[in-house]
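Contributing: when you submit paired examples, paste them exactly as shown. First protein:
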Amino acid sequence: MKSILEAVGEDPTREGLIDTPMRVARMYEEIFSGLHTDAKQHLTTVFDEPYSEMVLVKDIPFYSVCEHHLVPFFGTVSIAYLPQNGKVVGLSKLARIVEEISKRPQVQERITVTVAEMIMTELKAAGVYVFVEAEHMCMTMRGVKKPGAVTITTAARGHYADNDAARLELLNMIK
């Protein structure tokens, strides 16, 4: 960090910057804390509930960091799954996996697919649909400078991969 400050023409020894390298290191430790965790742990406790209809948790906020520019991107994740064999997971667990997966140098597409695959595999769901909507600071504050531009990614597995009507119903609920 000290070298970066010097490279942009700053004096890293001036009062306001003396502790900046240490603060930045602590910040990166926090925002990359997902590198050292296994988000699957949150899906190991399931409950027996004879429910086989859609479960949708929408607009889960997340913050991540673009691995290409190391600047933030942020938005929301909506997750729908179809329980199978009477097994459901606590709703907060879906938010927890989003939190942990997003706390890594990342791309939005990977968050989307990782969440979908993890839920499908760990819960043995009949179907999963993940909808991620985010604003990327690498497009807002640098480069093309287009604030407000939103990127949407989706992943459909199982029942939702093959069923246009089910996906449309879900998209109407999410939006």
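Second protein:
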Amino acid sequence: MRLDPIYADILSVRIIPNVDPMLAKQLKIKKSHKSLAMFTVDLDDVGVTALDEATKHADVDVAYAQSFYAGADHASGPLSGEFIGILSGPNPDEVKSGMGAVKQVVEHEAYFEAINEAKTHSLYAHVVSKPGKFLSKEAGVEPGQALAYLIAPPLEAVYGIDTALKASNVELTTFYRPPTETNFGGGLLTGTQSSCHAACEAFREAVMEVAENSTRY
């Protein structure tokens, strides 16, 4: 099943070539890391996925990753969006390389999917074939162990996670209890790549079922 994709937009980007030591201390970055790359994006889970990909393409760590309350529709300003991500690295070239990976994921690889024509109802069902050090740590798995990253509105998320677990040989490693900061819910499931793909498909179908028959039980 393929639904219409909803791609995120990167709203703002800045590089700090030589971060002030006091800010570096607050962000708890490595002493060897002197540079930062910051961005905001209007779909938070896409931003998380992009940050993780950056850790595989450059000598960078995720220094900060935070969703904003109630999501992009209630952003604090035109450049705020739904999420801020900060990469740290030893020099400007490394964090710029990391941002290149972020842009590639956001613009071409990871996306939400529209459940209705107005695109006001959506889900995120994305297989991370070989997670980097950020999502691996979040899920508590070894780097490179496949993940199904599943997100939907609250009830749909819980119902969909249960369906995905029963439909495929996967393990729920991280459960994002609804409501999250953006009033969604979901989780990270791990297994083989084929099992993760099957989990994503089951999740989509379950969320679609709720959308089509929301009060029938």
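If you have annotations for the second protein, write them as plain sentences, like these:
The mean pLDDT is 97.
Residues 42 and 198 are 27 Å apart (CA to CA).
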